[in-house]
Structure formats: C-alpha cells, structure tokens
Amino acid sequence: MITVSDALDALFALADPLPVETVPLRAASGRVLAGPVTAKRTQPPFAASSMDGYALKAVEADLHAQFKIVGESAAGHRWNGALKPGQTVRIFTGAPVPEGADKVVIQEDVTRSGDMISISGDPGPKDNIRPAGVDFSAGTRMEAPRRLSPGDIALLAAMNIAEVPVRRVPVVALISNGDELVVPGETPGPDQIIASNTYGLAAMLEGIGAHARILPIARDTEASLSTVFGLARSADLIVTIGGASVGDHDLVGHVAANLGMEQAFYKVAMRPGKPLMAGRLGGVPMLGLPGNPVSAMICGTVFLAPMLNAMMGLGRAPAPRLAMPLDGALPANGPREHYMRAVITGGRVADAGAQDSSLLSVLALANALIVRPPHDPARQMDERVDVVPLS
C-alpha cells in the first residue's frame, strides 16, 4: 500500500493538461481560463455621474447658491459644451460629466424652479463622480488559470472580450461493474441493488466542470468488461467503480491488464477507500475506485477532483483543508489515514455518526470530512483537526 500523498503524486503524473480552445464568452462560464486576456477599453471610458442630480463647479457648491440649467446629460447622450460660472447641467446616473464640472449635487439637495436651481441641502464633500478608468483601464489583465465565475464573465464583457481561451472540458467515462447492479428506475432482482455511485460521481464531476459519460453497467465477465472498456477509449479519463479488489468476481484489474493497462499503483493506506487502482489504458488515464458507495464518493473528493483540476490547468494540489475545533471527542485512529464523514456547524466540526462505508444516508448529511493521520491519538472537545469541506 502507498500513502494518500504518494497516490496523489502518481495521479498527477497521469493528469496531462488538456488542450486549449477558444470559445465565445457566452459559453465560458465555469470554464478554466487558459491564458491571460487584456481589456480592450477603459471602464468607465469617461468621468461619469454616480447619482442623479446637477453637475457644476465644486467651488460654487455653497448652500443656497443658485445656478442656471443649460442642458442635460443622460447615459448614452452627453451634453456637449463647457460649463461657465453659475451654470449647471441636469445629469443622470452613468452619464458623462460635462467639461468644466467636477461635482454632482444630488437632486434631493436641490430646489428647482423652471431653468434655475438653488442648493437647498448640504451638498457635502463627496463629488459623486466616477473617474475615468476607476474600474479598469485598457490593457488591464485577467490572469490565468482561473475558473470563470459569473463575476468574471461580467468583467470580461465590460472589457469588450468576445472570446476567451479555455481548457477543453474533460470527458470522463464512468464504468460501474457488478452483476448486482441496476440503474435507477429499473426493478432490481432479489439479490440486486441500485448503481448509486455512478450518479453521485457524475454529479460531482459536472460540478467541477467535467462532462460525465455514464456507460452501460459492466457485468462480472471478462467479455462484458472488455466491451465497456472499448466504449471508453475516446474519453480523457476512465473511472471504474467496483471490481478493483482481489475477490473472485473482482475482474477490473485483470481485464484492464489484459487490455494493456500500465499500472501506476494498487491499494492506498486510507479508509474508506483502500482498494484504489490507477494507470494508463491505451494512453488514457484510468482510476479504479472501490465499489462501496461512501468509499467511491470520498475517493472522488480526495483523488478524482484534484486529478481533474490538474487536467484543467488549475494546478496540482490536494483537496483544500481547514483547521477547525472539534465539537466532540474522537477515539484514537488506526494505522491508515481516515476520512471521517463530519458536519460543520457554527465554525466547529463533529463526526456525522456511523462511519461504515456503505451508509450513503450519513454521507448525505455530511458537509465535511475530518482527516485523521495514521495512529492519531484520541482527540478531545475543542482540539483542532484538519477538515476537507464538501461542496
């Protein structure tokens, strides 16, 4: 068995960055920016009013001062001219500030009569003007890599960027293995269960920006497994679920080896999730996950998600951890690194109850994993432990 850290290093060695493609901005949300882009314009491109009011010279903005209205400036329709002493321009939010004006008095502090106004409220020191370029200037860079958020998309649009370079979306082939499995919606036989792992992992993958292809369930025969492996050859990553152990019906490793898999490792010193396997099959990275539902999902968090992040150019790093105080005691840990389902409440963390690797109901309640090092001693209330948040 190898350590979790060594297993991650081996997986990162398999995770070659995906090619770069250029996509329209409308299709870029959630994608990983592959190279820096620069703003093609300044925002705002002119000094703009941040309020509805009247533009005038600040030195004249005294209480009860009077001004003649000589025009109007609205968003998209500036007033062309230069203000003279004693003049003002009616102005609206986002409109260009006229030449000669350096203050906008908000309309609530003004009394208007015909084409005259007087300042009836304290105008205060604020000029209510957004300077040109206060947001960004032409040439400002958005650096890569980064997963593009809705805010990033809005910023890129304001920069007048119509297309962006992004990493190609990884295609992950998911293969469930076992005679006992049927897909959700089917009627299972007396000795069968539902293939839940595939659907949970597909949801996880799509949440981090991958495309999950759920392939037909591979039965416990070499011919069935070989056929389904053939359907996965066009994927960027092959993930098998179940059949990776050493029982008489665990055929994944044997069949993959016969098909030419170059094995990177087998078995990891962790729980749940010891029977983990990885390698290359026909040049495609392959990760063999355990069949127990919780084991598969936890290995998805610990190994699969970081591997995909590396393929998408986001760096080679393990799942992020936080140090949090315990909201209850924990017994001593055994010889393997333990990922305990846990619940974070009010900045504190507690184990989520029974830790059997078949209990999806406990996993569904959990929003974090407590990470226990090998031979970690018993922990008491308020001691700090490493925690991997679950999204």
Structural commentary:
With 391 residues, the protein is an alpha+beta fold. It folds into four domains: 4-17 and 168-311, MoaB/Mog-like domain (Molybdenum Cofactor Biosythetic Enzyme, Chain A); 27-40 and 138-167, no CATH class; 48-130, Molybdopterin biosynthesis moea protein, domain 3 (Molybdopterin biosynthesis moeA protein, domain 3); 322-389, Beta-clip. Helix content is 19%, strand content 30%. The chain contains seven helices and 28 strands. It has helices at residues 4-14, 150-158, 196-207, 222-231, 252-258, 293-311, 360-365; strands at residues 20-24, 32-33, 37-38, 48-49, 53-56, 66-73, 87-91, 103-106, 110-113, 116-119, 129-130, 141-142, 146-147, 163-167, 171-176, 181-182, 193-194, 211-214, 237-241, 262-266, 270-271, 277-281, 284-289, 322-325, 337-345, 348-351, 368-372, 384-389. Strands 8-5-7-6-10-9 form a six-stranded mixed β-sheet, with no helix packed on it. A hairpin with a 2-residue loop joins strand 25 (337-345) and strand 26 (348-351). Helix 1 packs across helix 6 (293-311) and helix 3 (196-207) runs parallel beside helix 6. The longest helix has 19 residues, at 293-311. The radius of gyration is 31 Å and the shape is elongated. The two termini are 29 Å apart.
